[in-house]
């Protein structure tokens, strides 16, 4: 198999999809590895390190896409990359199809097999290729929230931790999965009062057991949400229904209940976001105001901490990349049901139920 690693093209995306260790293992397994020049720069990995691991350094994007049967990326292909996708090729990356119908149509039209990191399952039903980046984004959401609460960044001038004699901030976390739990723990560690909402009672029981005392768990329903919003200095959006568009839990009219210049960090923006007023932003211009509330909706938060994220991501993705390279997508999916859950589009047809339902497309069973 010829495995291609293009340089990421999304704004401020500093991750790369394969480390030199991965290149070495693929080469040892008999595959050819093409790495686009400077692909690893943002993560502090040089062309020389890839070359020493047996990879061929390729100057042009089009060459990588044109020669490789298996393309490994980090982020979804952007419009400039769409014409490069080829029938019969396998593309292994984050896609978040439900948030982007044009991307879904482009992938269907191209004939590639799209294996989405975010819907691959493990034996316990978890999402092992989403988890490491959710850990990064969850922790980062509080550091970003703390920054944008500062007045020079348009926030309400609140220090999350408070100081003796002045109350700490209140942080509301919507969704108590990986992002939510990591956000709650970091916020609590800084001394904030945290409310953590989820609809899964077993998950709430677990969180109630393991979280520090300044984290209060709440069942997620409209009533409880409206009760806590007036106290919220910072709200983290961390809800997920795998493969599907995120539900809009916070409506525009609800923003009026929040204190002026409070901050929302909608981590779930990659699946469309859980605030009605969310729209994707970039690290270069991460925030905008709606009704006096600061909105931060960066779709590739972990991209900003490329070095940590590249290693965390590839620890999880590499075993699946190796299976795809060794067996090809069809056999790899046949042999591994968890990997099969990642196959979202194949030969022009949608093979993921949540994506098919989101856009009303027919579902093709694998
Ligand atoms: N913007 C970015 O750069 C990044 C975004 N993400 C995104 O963050 C989101 C969350 O990811 P994870 O925490 O890994 O997912 P997860 O599956 O671990 O957690 C999601 C939680 O949401 C809960 N939930 C579902 N409906 C709910 C509702 N109505 N109210 C409250 N909770 C509800 C679920 O019970 C679950 O506990 C995903 O969309 C993921 O793609 C993850 C990493 C980076
Ligand atoms: C999960 C995702 O889309 C990211 O880490 O960029």
From TrEMBL:
InterPro entries: Ala_DH, Ala_DH/PNT_CS2, AlaDH/PNT_N, AlaDH/PNT_NAD(H)-bd, NAD(P)-bd_dom_sf. NAD(+) binds at residues 134, 198, 203, 220, 239-240, 267-270, 279, 298-301. GO terms for biological process: L-alanine catabolic process. One of its GO terms (molecular function) is nucleotide binding. The active site is at residues 96, 270. Substrate binds at residues 15, 75. Residues 4-137 form the Alanine dehydrogenase/pyridine nucleotide transhydrogenase N-terminal domain. Gene3D superfamilies: NAD(P)-binding Rossmann-like Domain. Residues 149-297 form the Alanine dehydrogenase/pyridine nucleotide transhydrogenase NAD(H)-binding domain. It comes from the Bacteria. PANTHER family: ALANINE DEHYDROGENASE. NCBIfam families: alaDH (TIGR00518). This is Alanine dehydrogenase. The gene is ald.
